[in-house]
Amino acid sequence: TGLTWGKWTNNNGKIDAPIGRDRKDHTKYTISENGKKSFTDYKVENQFRHCTLVSFFPKTGRTHQIRVHASHVGHPIFGDEKYGGGISKTKGFLPEFTQFYKKSMSEFNRHALHAKSLEVVHPKSKANIIFKAPLPLEYLNLIESIESFYEG
Questions:
Q1: Torsion of CA 32, 37, 42, 47, to 10 degrees
Q2: Rounded to an integer, what distance in angstroms lies between the CA atom of residue 119 and that of residue 130?
């Protein structure tokens, strides 16, 4: 689940864009014609005034795949400095929104992306193994504070 910037046009869909290393910054990845095939399905869970809560379902396992794909379609992950969703994204709003988003990012102190579940195939038994992790309290608090801010 990711909290992304902006409102998504479609409530669900597929992002099909190859990913490769960024030539200028080797700690970063980018959409590249010469990159590896990468597919991510998504489903919009909740739209807010400036942000959207989205469930992502990566079909391939590229490094930073969800972060790169979300940024590529114009909706970077909230708090993700590396891929365009950080403090600079708070500029251009009315001052009260800018102040609220900066404070929220500072308090949350990471990008708002959480793996609620991970499914892998066991290498020997070939059984599907599913790991589940509910949204942590600080993530739930971030979403609640955004909902409350818009209602107030």
A1: 0
A2: 4
